[in-house]
C-alpha cells in the first residue's frame, strides 16, 4: 500500500509538469490553430537559461529571467514564422514549427554537449517521509507551483479580456475579428504564455530525482503531447485531465515494471501513447474536446 501511495503521488507530480507543458500546446492551438512542435526546444531553452544564470543571479531571479527569455523567444517565433508569413495554411505552419524546433534544439544541444547541468533549485535532494511514504521535496513543490499557475491561467482565461478574446477566437476567428478582437495580440500573448509555462516545467523536469538538465530533457516534453491529444487539443481542462492520466499511467507502469516484464522493458515510456490511442479510438476528439459540427 505504501508503494502504491508513493507511485500515485509521483504520478500526480509528473502529471503536474505535463499539465504545464500540455497547456502550452492547447493555448497555442486555440489561438492560432497551430500545433507547436517547437515547444520542446523552448522548454530546453528555459532550463538552459536557468542553469547558466543561477550561480550569478540566484535560482529565483534566474528562473524569472528564463521565463522572460523563453516567453520572448516564443513570441518572436509567432511574429516571424506564424503571423509573419501571412495567410499560410495551418498545416504548413505546423510543419514549420518542426524546423524551428530542429534549429533551436541543435544549437542548445551543441552548447550543452555531454554535460548534465544543475539548475540550482532550492529543494535539491530533500525527501519527506509521511507515514512510510517517501516523496521528494521537488515533487511536492512541483504540485504546489503547478496548482497555483494552472489556477491563475484558468482565472485569466475565464475572467480577463484576453481570455474572452481567446474563447471568441477559438470559436470563430472571422466573427471575432469582425467584433473587434485583435487576433494578432491574442495569438502573441498565447505563444508567450506557453513559452513561460515551458520554462517553469523545465525546472521540475530537471529537479531531483532527475540528475539534471541534459540534451535529452526537451524530448521529455513530447510526452506531454499525448496528454494534450488525450484531453482534446481545444480544451484547457482536457489538457489538465489528460496530463494527470498520462502522469499516473507512466508512474504506475514504471513502478510495477517488474510485474509487467512480459510486456517488455521501458513500458512507462510507451504506455501514455497506448492510452492515447485507446481513448482516440473511442472518442476521436479527446476526452473533453469539442465535436466538430458540419451543416449539410
TrEMBL record:
Membrane-traversing stretches: 7-28, 34-51, 58-82, 138-157, 188-208, 220-248, 260-282
Membrane topology: Multi-pass membrane protein
Any Gene Ontology biological process: amino acid transport
Signal peptide interval: none
Compartments it resides in: Cell membrane
Superkingdom of source: Bacteria
GO MF assignments: transmembrane transporter activity
Chief location bin: membrane
A Pfam family this chain is assigned to: BPD_transp_2
Keywords noted in UniProt: Amino-acid transport, Cell membrane, Membrane, Transmembrane, Transmembrane helix, Transport
Gene Ontology CC entries for this record: plasma membrane
Sequence similarity: Belongs to the binding-protein-dependent transport system permease family. LivHM subfamily.
Protein name: Branched-chain amino acid ABC transporter permease
